[in-house]
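Schema walk-through. Below, the input block comes first and the output block second. Nothing else is stored per chain. Lengths vary across the set, and this one has 196 residues.
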Amino acid sequence: MWENLLSVFDDLIGGDAPHDPMRLTQTAVRAALMYVLSLALVRYGKSRFISQASAIDVLIVLILGSLLSRGITGSASITATLVASAVLVAFHFSLTWAACHSHRIGSLVKGNPRALVEHGAIHWPQMRRSHISQNDLVEALRLRTNTDDLGQIKVAYKERNGAISFILYPREPRVVEIAVEQGVQTVRIELTAPHA
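--- output ---
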């Protein structure tokens, strides 16, 4: 019975050893199998490398994609592909767990935020170190805050994941006075618009 199962398995996926060429049905079955198994690996990895794209998260996605594609096309054995993928996900999980519990490891693995602007003044050494031009900074400012006025920035950071975040000065309320005639008092309205 075991030999019959192995024979069916070999016929479905073309065996475990790498080989070329494979039938299209074998490639399709391998693709479905790799999809299900990689979904299980991603779920095990807590989906972290999808939701928070830091450098180590992008790296694991690239390596896993390359590895799993070799298992699908038959240029690597399914067993070797799965073992290597599982080891990478486990290592990634361990590294991110350690980075979460140790500031030193987190800084080593993910880096640190850098202040790019303080009180409207650009820190050019940090901008150059981060490879961000003034045009890049103003573009991010427009996209995130609906303004391009650097003077409104209290502080801007290049975050550990590469995004630029802004803390703007609080806006002064705008006062609108409406005079009403024939002895009625003036109506005063303060409008404070939130930052976008």
